[in-house]
Amino acid sequence: MTEKELRDLLTRSHIYDLGQPYWNGMPVHPFDPPFQSYLYRYHEYVRKTFDELGIEPGFSDAISIMITSNHAGTHFDLPIHMSQDKKVIGIDVTPYQRDTGFKDLPEPLHSLEKVPPLVLRSVLLDIAAYKQLEVLPERYAITSEDLSGAVSRQEVTVNVGDCILVRTGYGRYFETDRDAYLNKWAGLDDGAARWLASKKPRLVGIDNLSLGVPEPFVSHRILLAENGIYVMKSLMLEVLGKDRRYTSTIIVLPLKIRGGEASLVRPIAIV
Q1: Res 135: pLDDT
Q2: Which residues lie closer than 8 Å to 217 by C-beta, 6 or more apart?
Q3: What domains does the chain contain, in order, with CATH numbers?
Q4: Mean pLDDT calculated for residue range 17-37
Q5: How far apart are alpha carbons 13 and 237 in whole angstroms?
Q6: What is the DSSP letter of 101?
Q7: Quick one: average pLDDT of 161-187?
């Protein structure tokens, strides 16, 4: 897509924010450190200091500091985030690990600074709606038949290189029901993960934190470590689903963290 085509698309389209908010105490994976954000500089103290030093009298600022893993809230995973027997798409990643991240990875593996801005055709597979529900049942395991059934019901096609979004309905609980979001989520069974991988998407996104049910790491292994597919998690897909926007253009801009395996991200869908 050219810059002019993107500008034209934006002027005539509706934009859906697919990102969840970040705040102290937000739900994160129990293996991960908590998300923390604090004001480091306060207006009243900065102004006092500036006034005393004669620097721009009356002027002040506030600056916050954030401490988080790269996997808090809405985030973007690279294949190197997960491995099987230390291998990602058949490559042993351990020689390339450093305290500061990954370095000198052999192609096609890469870290975040080499991820281009992603502007992709996107297909939403609303599995909750396909099952005629607002939210899938607790710990429901989505099957490949559910995915193919949603494709047929929604009358969409899935192309190589697309972004595939999977709606379970659990995104609505991110801010309101920590227990439901962290412990009762619905997700992909192993066959569903393999079905997604067989479509050869560039990116798979879902509105839960842990992808798979009952074993979350199997889906990670299939998509990331075995097939080298980007993954996004903890998306907000409720409005997109309510409006039945099954196809869109998605824009995803991960931070260019040198050596990084994941990034906080705020994706948007344009319809």
Answers
A1: 98
A2: 82
A3: 12-22+70-270 (3.50.30.50), 36-67 (no CATH)
A4: 96
A5: 18
A6: E
A7: 97
Say how far apart CA 110 and CA 115 lie, in whole Å: 8
Cβ–Cβ under 8 Å, residues 142 and 136: yes
| Beta-strand relationship, 87-88 and 91-92 | antiparallel
Per the CB < 8 A criterion, the answer to whether 79 and 72 are in contact is no
Task: Give me the mean pLDDT over the 80-108 stretch.
Answer: 96
In degrees rounded to 5, what are phi and psi of residue 194? -70, -35
* Higher per-residue confidence, 2 vs 193: 193
* 69 phi, psi to nearest 5 deg: -80, 165
N-to-C CA span, the chain: 15
Report residue 90 as tokens.
């058949």
* Amino acid making up residue 96: Y
Token pair in block for residue 267: 């994706």
- pLDDT at site 1: 65
